[in-house]
Every structure is written in C-alpha cells, then in structure tokens.
Amino acid sequence: MKMRGKQVIAGVMAAWMALFIGVFPPNAAYGEEPEIMESGVQAAYYVSNEGNDANPGTEALPFATLQKAQQVVRDVNDEMTGDIMVYLRGGRYSQTTTWLLNESDSGSGGHSVIYAAYGNEKPVIEGGRDITGWTLYDEDNDIYAASAVGLETRQLYINGIRATRARMEGGLTNSVKTSTGYVSDDLWLADLQRPSEVEAVFKGAWTSPRVRVQSITAQSGKAAITLNSALWSSVMNRSHLEQWYLENAYEFLNEAGEWYLDDQSETIYYKPRPGENMGSAVVTAPVLENLITIAGGSVSSPVHHIRFEGIGFAYSTWMQPTDEGGWIDEQNNYKVGTLELPKAAITVQYAQNMAFERNDFSRMGGTGVNLLAGVQNYLIQGNRFYDISGSAINAGQTSKKTAAIYNPTDEREILKNNDILNNYIHEIGVEYKSSTAVTVAFPMDIDISHNEIFNVPYSGISFFGSVYAPVTTTVNAKVQDNFIHHLMGDGIFDGGAIYAFGVTGGTTLNPNIISGNYIKNQMNRYSTIYMDQSSDYWKIENNVVDLRTTPIWDDIYDTNWAFTNINTHDIVLDNNYSTTSAFWNKSSSDSNVKTNDHIHPDGNWPIEAQAIIANAGLQSAYQDIAQGTIEILNVPDALNLASEDTVTLPLQAETGHGASINLASAQTYYVSEDPSIATVNGSGMVTAVDSGHTAIVMYVYYMGSLVRKVIDVYVDDELDDIEVYYALENVKHIVPASMTFAPGSTRQLVARGITREGQILGGTDMSISSSNTSVATVVYGLLHTLAPGTAELTFTSSLNGVSVNKVVEMIVVDFSDENSLEVPAYSLNGAIRDPRNWYSKLTSGTITPSEGILDIDTPGSGYAIYEDRTFGDELLSMNMKINATGGWPSIVLRSQKVEKDFAATDNSLYMICFKPNIIELHRFSGGVRTVFFGEISGFGSLGAASYPNTSIPFHETHFVQAGAVTESNGVRIILNVDGVNVFTYVDTSPDRITEDGYFGLYARSGSMTLSETNLGLPGEDVWPIAEEPSASLTGVAKAITNLNTTLTGAVVPNSTLNLTVAEITYDPNIFEFKAVSSLRDDIAVSVTGAVYGTVQLTFSGTGTTINGYNAIDLFAATFKAKTVTPSSEILLSGISLTDMNENVVVTDSVGKQMVVSAPVAGGIYESFDTYSTGNISGASGYVVSPTNLGYSTIQNYPTDADKSMYLYKTSTTDTASTTTTKIYSTAGIAGKVKASYQVMKESGVTNPQSFVNFRDKSGKVIATVILDSTLRVKLNQDYTLVSTAYLQENMWYQVTLELDFDAHTASVKVQEMAGAGRTWTSGLQSMQNVLAANISRVEYVLWSTRTGAYYYNNLVIEPIGS
C-alpha cells in the first residue's frame, strides 16, 4: 500500500489515540493543525460539524458533511496523481441515513481516497438520537422519564456507557416448559402492563435465542406465559436450553443502569447509576442500523482504494429481533436455518484494496463490520472494537450447501487476501451471546494475527464452514500470535477460543495454520482449540494454553486444550504447551496426529513457551490502543468478615499479561445492597454490621468506560465441610475417605469448602498436601499416583480464622503380574477367518472380513459373539485396533450365552471395557454387575478405580491377550498388551465364572478390528470349512394385473468369487418381463438372453469380484402381471460365479411365490410408471408446494419400467415444508379400506425426515407415517414400529394401513421387502382424528429445515367392505 509523509501518519495516530479519552463530546475543540506534506498527496479536503457545505472545503472553510466531501472527491478521483485526503475535525457526525460509497468513490492510479481524523481530534460517525428533557418520574425508586416520540431502538447509552434493558434476572420460579411457553410460580407477571413487549431470553449450547411473549395470564395460581408460536417451536427442544431472564417491561426496572421504552406512550424510562446526573448527562439512543455501506456494483466494478484512519464509528442499532418477535440464532449469531447475518454498522461488498486502520468501533447494536462477497485485499489493522451487541467482525457469507458461496467458480467472488491484524477486541456479544469476536466463512489467504480478544461470551475466532461441501475456499488461513483470554463466562458453551467447522480447501502439504497463540482462562467447554465436525487440513503448533483458573468446566467437564470432533481428518497438533493434558478425540481418522505435547500444570513455562506468550497479542507499534482499558479488575469476588470487622476494597487492575493499570484517575462509587448486614463508604471501606449475606456493587468509571463489579459479603459465616470430587466421563465422583488406584492414574481433584451461607471456597482458600509424595502427589489439584503404597491427602480450608481439614487415604496397588505372561496362549486366527460364525445381535451391525482381518461394528445396542466354540483357560490372542471415538468398546470372556447380552438375567460373562484414558473390568452374573476396576455410579469397586489406559490407544493396532483362567482360589482375569501384563485380577467371589464360555466384542461407537497373529501360537493354523454361495429373490408377494412389480436378486458369496451370469424363469402366461437394473454402482447388469419365460443376465464392471458373508443386492427385475392366479412362482434359477481358480460355482435356485389379483372396483392404484421423468408438479393432479423448489420428481427407479416418485432436498436454508399432494378421490372412500405404499430412505443424507399424511375430503388427518431415524405412525398417539436399531437405509419397506371409518380405528403393518423380510405392526388404535370419515387425499412431505432423499412407489387404496 502507498505510504504517505511521516507527519501525516503521526497526526492520524494522535487523532486515533484521542478516541480513548472520555466520552465523545458533543462539540470538540479543534486541536493543533498538522503540517501536511505535499509529497504523495494530490488534494486535501476538510470537514467539520461546524462547517458549511457551501464552503470550499479548506482547512479554514471546511465542509459540514461527509456527503459533500464525497461529492467533491468524485469530481477529482478519475486520474489521481497522489492520495486524496479528507480530514474530519473532531465532533459528532450524526447520520440519519446510511452513508453509501460505491465504485465512483474509489481511488485511481494506485492511490487511495483517505478519510482520516484531523490532528489529535476525535471525529465520530454515528447514528444516534439524543434524548433530552429528563424529569424525575418515580422519586421513591429514582426513575426518570423523557419523551421518546417515534423512537425505535434496542439500546440506550448514558454518557457513552451502555445501559441495560430492564430485565427480570434469575429466570422463572419453578417453571415448567410447555408446548406454548412456560408455566411458573411468578403470578405477578400476569399483571404486567405490556406483556406482549416482553422478550424471553435463553442460553444453551452455542446459542442464546430470544422469543417475544404473546401473553401472560393467571391460571390456577400460576403465570401461564405464551411465547411467539412462530419461533417457540424451533427453540423449545434445543439442547441444554435454559430460560435465562425476561426483558423489556417497566415492572422489571429495579436496578441502577436499567431502561425501558414504552412504545405506546412514547416515553422512555431510566434508573441512573451512581455518578450520573440526568440534568447534564448525554443520553443517546441508536436509531440507524447501518452507518456505512461500501459496495461496488458487481465483481466487475468493485469499489477500491478507500481507507479510513483514526475515525470513531458509533451508535447503531439492529431492529430485526423486535420486528420478527425474537431472534433464533445458530453459532456466531447467524439466523437459524437461513444462516442470515445480523445487520452490521459497516457493510462492505465487492471491495478491493481497502483499509480500516486505527479506528474505533463501539456502541453498536448488531455486528461491527460485515465483509461480504467479493471483498479482497482488505486490511483491518490497529482498530479497537468494544461495546458491541453482536460480533466485532464477520468476514464472509454463510451457507452449508450452496456451492456458489462455499466454492464460487468466479474467483472475484471469493473473500480473498484479507488481513485482520493488531486489533483490540473486547466486550462484544453484549446482547447476543452466541456472537464470536471474529467470524470468517470460506476465506482464501486470510491472516488473523496479533489481535487481543477478551471478555467475550462465546468463541474468540471462528471459521464457519460446511460439512456437506467436497471442498471450500478456506485455503492458506493463518491464525497466528493472537492473545485470547477471559472468554465463555456467561453460560454459553460448546465453543472455543479458536474454533473451526467444516471442510476446507487445504492439503497435506499446504494446511491452514493455527500457531503462536496464547489462550488463557476459557471458562466453559468444550475446548480451547476446537476442530468441529469435518474440519480438515489444519496444522496446530506452538500454541500456549493456560487453564489454571478453571481446572474443570461446569463442575464435570474436562478442560480440553484441543478437541477433534467426528469426521475430522488431517489435523496435525505438534509442540503445543498447556496446563492440562486433557485432549478429546472423537475422530476415527488415523490422519489426525498429536505429538510433542508439553504439559505444565503449574504454569511454570519453559523459555520457549514464554517467548510465545510474550509475542502473542498486539505488536509494539499498536500496544497504545489498549491504553485506558481495564482488562481485569483485581477485586475479590467475596469478602468474609466477622461482625464489626472493616476492610477497604482494593482498586487495582491489570492487563491479561499481568501488567498493572494505573487507576489514579478513575472515579469509583460503592453501593451496599443491604446496609443492615454491611455498609460501605465512598472510599470502599466495608464495615460488617450483622450476620448474614449481602453484596457491594462497585462502579469504576475510567477513561469513558464503566466496570461494574458485584462483591458478595458474608458476615459471621462458618465453614461446615470440605467436599472433594473429580469428574470422569462427565460424571461427578465424590471422593470417599479411602480410595484405591493403580499406579499411573491421574484425576483432576476439585476441593471446595462449603459454608453455612452456601459459599463455595476453593482456589487460594484451599491447600492440599500429601503425606507420601513417592506414592501420590497433587499439583494444582491434579492427582498423580506414582508407586504402590499409601498416602494421606490433607485438604485444608480456613474461614475467619477457623480451619477445617479433610483427610483422604490414597491406596496405590499394582495389579500387574509377570506370571500372567506365562499362561498358555491360543490364537483367534480361526475366529478371524470365520465371519459367518459370528452372531451379531443387530441388523445394522456389520462383520466385514478381508485378508487376515475381521472388522466388527455393532452400533446401538448390538454386540457380536463368536458362536462356533467356547474357550477355557487360554489367553485368547489377537492383534486388535479400536476404531471408536468414545463409548466403551469391550472384550467379552466366558459369555455363557450367545444370543444374550451382558444385562440378561440368564447370562454371565466377564467384560473388559476400553476407553480413551481408562480400562474397566466387570463381571455380569444374572444381570448383576460387579466392578473390579471402574468408577460406576452406584457401584463400589472391588479392585481399584478405573485402570489407566496407556497400553492400547484408540486407532492403533496392538497385540492383545485376554483370558480368564480358573485356579484353585478363583478365576484369574488377565490382560496383556504387547507382551506386558497390564493387570491381573483374581475373582474369588462365589459368583465367579468357572465354566468355559464364548468370546465376543461390544463395538457400539465405532468398529473393532481383529487381525491374525503370526507368532507360532496354537490355533494360528485353524481354518473354517468354506460354505457354498447362496442366492435370494425378495419382494412383495402380491401383484395386480396390468401393473408392474419388482423383485430384488441378491447373493451371499461366503468367500471371494467373481460374478458372471444369472438366470430367471417365470410363467409367461402369468407375467411379462419388463426391465432389469443394477443395484450397485460398480456392477452393470445386462440382458443377454430373453427367451419366452427365461431371462439371462450378465454381470460386468469393476465390482464383480465380491466377498463376505452378508447378502449383496445385485439387481432389480420388473415384471408386469397379466392374469389373475392364486399362485405363480418367479424363479432365480441360479447365479453363476467363479472362484480364484476359475472353477464355476452356481447357487441353488430360489423362488418367489406370487398371488396375482385383479383391481378392486373403486380402488386406486398409483404406480407412477406412466409419468414422464422429471418434476411431478402439475402432472395428473399432483400439486407441489412451494412450486419453485422442484423437490418432487419422477425417477426411473428401481428400474426403467418401475418408476417411483422421488422426494429430495439437500439444503436446510429454506424453512418451508415441501408438500406433494393429490386428491385421489373427491368423494372419499369410506367404510373399511386398505391403503398401502412402498417407501425407501436413501443413504448419505444428514438428519432426514419425510412423512405421509392420509386425509379425508374435509382435510382431517387419518394417520401420519413418519420416516427419519425410525419409522413410526401417528394415530391417537405416536407408535414406533421400526426402531433406529432395525431401520435400514436403501431398504424398501411396504407400509399397509387397515382403516375402519365406521369404528374410526386403524392398524399399521410395516414389512421389509428384502433381507430378512421382517414385519412390525401397531395393533388396532384410534385414528389421529376420530372424526375422519373417509380417505380422499395423500400428502408426501419433506419437513422444514430437514434434508431428505426418499422414494415412494405403488400406492394402493382398496375398499374392503363396510
């Protein structure tokens, strides 16, 4: 970028520094006039709020408005020979409309148009309206009022300091969530004057939605709160939703600093804070949503070469939450579903070679700056962002499924080569708590470096992406040397200091970079560096994470310094420093690699980490912008005093790096909430008056900002007890008087003193000592067990001179025994080579063989048992790899039953459970659990706490030996890994399992892979007897004359074979062959012979070599029924295959018996076979709504002759449901009716849902059949027919409803059309609407905000009597 004279730059810097001094004054005096160098400057113009647009715009005779200067610049910017300077004198430049800049305002010739502060003055471009004429309205409560005619705002500022919209803190009392809102004990809410203006604000996982109240009424002594129904339905079932507070009622106006705007009386009310004089205060309400829009006309005509330097931008609002009756957010305060961005004070689009440098963005009601499409080569450097309701910076448009956004074909659309450097960002997300300080979406070549971010409610830096895109433009992203501290302290969780979501465009050789960052005091879960779903190609190195202040999150969650979520891959973490070793991995990818962690629980950093810390944050040239800000106010959270004690509150502050801040010029006020308990004087001296609890509110005004601190004061409180606990797997475990651990165990202990008044004392109030540090140590609460022996841990807390101790005995026992390595071993090679003899309890589970390997996956409630033989006293030996991301993958020994799981009352077994950090050992006898190693709520452990898992990390292959050996004194349970005995436990209980039993696996959260051994062990040469392949022909057993029916041909190879040909025979007098289609993408099926009654098929393609022991669907064959018959068989005569030696193997013939019936008089038969492929809207009475989405089409599936209706949707950004409707009978069919259809859910779609409504002619719903993760029917209530465990994707199901409109009852049957052909029924129930009188029309629906891909076929509606 072109540089100008040093004196000009110095003047701009001085002007920018002045922004920090106090509140923006209404009339700023001119400062010293800078000496302007002519070199590099074509022209200079001046603007002053005391000027006149009739002036020539000189220093002596300045313009009055920005728009006038803009107009003059346009006359001289065509062929620039130097920069054009527009100097803004100090003062307020109030805008009533958005200031628009476009390509006509650009620089030229490589020079820029620069809008800059004059000298050391402070120009502020703002969109506020001053509120004057304040009078005392309620003397008792110190509430003032002023006229607010026509005012529309959501914010109010007093002397530049944000006031709080009147709120009812603490949430509702004894509230119960309902389908319409809440019922609570707060009966007084029913008397609110303006209940429909109230907003209910919530918090939860990564969101903080708000919903307008519709009404509040008194019902049975309670308040019934009805919320905006258009929004409540999408909020009420959100994860971890918590009603936080109610906002915006005069009756809530009870705290100093709160305000309320009464729209009906056009009056605004305010309760002043200490130190505020309403006679002289400057009260400003933001009214303009967008201060400035900078937008080129298109990618071909961008705006370019404009800079803003040393200017303040302030007082914008954002009214959409008011206008829409609430705001339902996703992460980063995006609008749910559509991912719409909140409005920003500054909006930039189609802009290049621009800059914001050393500006001040504050007092904003939405986002600070939005960079949208086509923004390239933009520098945001050295700015200060603070007091913003939403995010500071949003860079990029958002979409999960629109390629034109996540990977545009026109590179000019891409957010490219933009730098966000040396910015000072704090106090953002003030209202919209899911806001992130800096959010970027699909950037290319972005650099986010040397920023300091603190006091933010959610994530610090967020990369928003897509889990659906194959690749995005997120390439060459660099997040380096930032200092992020004190975040996520408002109860919003599931975020991180640095967060990424979705696919990038990185590669192994060119990953995106996260390095050199210093992260300190993140206060909530899940991780400081958070790689969320599908994140890929990130290199995370040389970062420092300090979580000592919060060693555990939300009482039970590990303080993870890094997290790789599901479907992440190619994440490299190397050479990072942390106070916690907690790392959470849910990815099954081996390409995620973590190496060279440096863990320092005490924060005693080595010199390399100290260098990273020192370098993080603002560089020296920009550290001046942090001056005047209280980053951390060092005032105690609580005071404990005895009656008549006095203590003076300290007035101390420091930066995030620990440097002191001089508060000599601060004005401080103190207020006691209950002077009968404790008083406070103007110097902050607190005097304890009487026993009890109160609070001191401290107001510190410093350099135009306010820090409000509430200090709890307890007088004569007493320490009752010390509670010691730790969290394991997000469960709180209270530490008893004595515990047994194995060596090498670690637990993050939390010790807290509990007082009579309910105080929780910890941190510096608690000391911990060990009587034997060779056995166990505790450093910053982290317990390490080192060697066998006993150590007493003493926890001591003191209060008001009285100490309380708690002693815990730590017994450390080593359960390893080298003799267990000598037990005879037996290889499981025979079981690994014999997948057909594994009993898998779950249809959705898989047992997948390959050469020398068996992969077993039993999701949900499944398990797999090798049923060919039992095992006795051998060490069962195998190579094992756990592919899970969590859960409890397990080995089962001595199971007495094959078909029963561990909880069965008629089964017994031993179970070794592997978890990422621990190993558990259990015995189940008759359904009763006994814990040997483990920490299970409600169960003691006979051996020790969970064994540390350092021997078999997930995603690594290790040699494992597990066995149960019966001895004279009990059963010895052994686990050896890689030739080392991990543990040996002897079960001496009378319930010990001495009988031989079956070996099995539980792999419910990811597969377990067993591979053969080659160590000369017994059993290594065991091979199962091979079985011949088999075929099947499946489908419905009934056909209708003149309609098509389709059957599925499948084969079970039972070994590795090559498909060649197949033959189908049928009675040509009964059926006519119509078509055949392959059901596999890698296999082609062609008809090579079609003689009367015989069809010969030939297979080709890359997938003809098949193997495995599960049925493989090969083809769909369609036949047209010609003649009625009670029985006719279609025969799959055989499938021919060849083995590896070219020997031909032919399957036995299998047949499908068919009944062929004539259509029933008055029946409806919709096969879709006569329609043209493509959109069905308008075809033969089908109505699709909305009409423009094209989600309902006719497809040639399962064959060209047997077509289906295909409903699909790949985007959740449209929130409307998509409905395809047809009235099949205008009069309706009454009496007894049978309705059936076929449906298939396609695989590969996330969170799908489709349903079918059957209605009568007046629209009443008879039944709704829903297919998502289950298949269920809604009649008089919901009935789940096919559960998640049994529902299969790409499986055709026939759904049959028997309807009785005389009795208003219905029953439903669901049958698999392939596979095992299982059937589920609902039984006879009342219809959904018992007033439904007939069946007239059917609706096929794709639900709003859900994706989906569904095939519907062969609807039949037949009267069966009355």
Automatic annotation (TrEMBL):
Transmembrane segments: none annotated. It comes from the Bacteria. Residues 150-273 form the GH141-like insertion domain. Gene3D superfamilies: 2.60.40.1080, 2.60.40.680, Single-stranded right-handed beta-helix, Pectin lyase-like (2.160.20.10). InterPro entries: CBM2/CBM3_carb-bd_dom_sf, GH141_ins, Invasin/intimin_cell_adhesion, PbH1, Pectin_lyas_fold, Pectin_lyase_fold/virulence. Pfam families: GH141_M. GO terms for molecular function: carbohydrate binding. This is GH141-like insertion domain-containing protein. It comes from Paenibacillus oryzisoli.
